[in-house]
Amino acid sequence: MKVLVTGGAGYIGSHTVLCLLQSNHQVIVYDNLCNSSEESLTRVQKLTGKQLEFVEGDIRDTTKLDAVFDNHKIDAVIHFSALKAVGESAQIPLSYYQNNVHGSVCLLEVMQKHQVQNFIFSSSATVYGEENDIPYVETMKLGTPSSAYGASKVMVERIMADQALANNKFRGVSLRYFNPIGAHPSGIIGEDPKGIPNNLLPFVAQVAVGKRDKLSIFGDDYDTEDGSCERDYLHVMDLAEGHVAALDWLNANSDFTGVEAFNLGTGKGISVFKIVAAFEKAVHKTIPYHVSPRRSGDLSAFWANAQKASSQLNWQAKRSLNDMMEDTWRWQSNNPNGYDV
Ligand code: NAD
Ligand code: WQD
Question: A single GO CC term, please (predicted)?
Fold first, then answer.
């Protein structure tokens, strides 16, 4: 298939592009590089020995986007592009709604104009909000996420549902990611956060490489086994393969129209203390840390019910926690400054 990948130069996008090329799909990446570097795509092409086309552009620039659809017969769109920092979304909510919600509408409009119906969206476990019990199941009513970032994901899921009601050819898949970590096992591509990392694993890895002094563990007084928060961490390569599985599913179900959501997670929660211990064991380094107050907006624990992806997409997260730690470290230690070489 010819697949347009928005946000394909970013962390999850670049790993997915690699898997798409390896599965013999043709790829056009459309990215404004606001949180990424074209170097990730250069490396993906070297790793796979295959070519992709890159267009630098913003999804809200519908003239440029339209030209891409004019120049290519696109079969499917995988839509990664978004702003994704939960804390920042409280400071500049309008930028988040503008980029994530308005940007998605622009993309769907151009798709509609060109009669492209296959749409795979990067959603998030955050759409379940605080209201739902764990583990999260796709049949649950969506919650009210505390952040503007989370709300933007709920809104795009709603927009997809409305679009499917209005257009009986629309074929949408919403992939609700849990906590992706790790890197390609080569250590050649990985996650390259700008500034101080917000997420746990990038921060741990930067402590290990000597870029940060110590980790703050946000709270040890939660109602969990060891008092720290529990999350469903999955390997980014498993997540990337989940997108190829979703494309295969769309192809195999040619009668399908509407929107279908799938959780992509392992189905298991792991605590922050356990993550730190697993990293130390895998890479033989000590991570200095201290316990600091809870981070506002953090839920104590959540993980996926991953049955639906297993039974319908034939997808399961198969890499181990040790793989996630070793691969994170290979990437971080070989590229202490990320893609800035
Ligand atoms: P990322 O920031 O590495 O990738 C996003 C990419 O989109 C970047 O390359 C950025 O330059 C691009 N982009 C942003 N706004 C754009 C615009 N207006 N036009 C064109 N390109 C634009 O983030 P990621 O971690 O790879 O996340 C990918 C997607 O997955 C996002 O939608 C994110 O919300 C979602 N998601 C991420 C996580 C996670 O923990 N990383 C979890 C759940 C969902
Ligand atoms: C994991 C755990 C922190 C950093 C976020 C978004 C979510 C999704 C994934 C996009 C938490 C603790 C963290 C640190 C810590 N993104 N932590 N010290 O918050 O589960 O999810 O990213 O959709 O929507 O909310 O991930 O990696 O930030 O935190 O103790 O320096 O690590 O409290 O328990 P989170 P995270």
Answer: cytosol
What's the pLDDT tens digit per position in 82-125? 999 999 999 999 999 999 999 999 999 999 999 999 999 999 99
pTM (two decimals): 0.99
Does residue 300 form part of some domain? no
Instruction: Among 40, 63, 80, 235, say which to mutate for ligand 1: greatest number of ligand atoms within 8 Å of CB.
Output: 80
Residues 167-180: pLDDT tens digits? 999 999 999 999 99
Residue 311 is assigned to a structural domain of this protein = no
Active site residue 149: yes
Answer yes or no: is 289 within a domain: no
Counting ligand 1 atoms within 8 A of each CB, the residue from 14, 37, 81, 192 with the most, and so the one to mutate, is 81
Report the complex ipTM. Answer: 0.99
Q: In the prediction, which pLDDT does 341 show?
A: 73
The answer to the question of residue 274 being in a domain is no
What's the domain count of the chain? 1
Q: Check residue 120 and give its pLDDT.
A: 99
CB distance 35 to ligand 1 below 6 Å: yes
**What is the rounded CA–CA span in Å between residue 220 and residue 54?**
45
- pLDDT, position 301: 98
Q: Which domain holds residue 151?
A: 2-181+233-264
Ligand 2, closest atom to CA 299?
34
CATH of the domain at 237: 3.40.50.720
Q: Is 14 touching ligand 1 by the criterion CB < 6 Å?
A: no
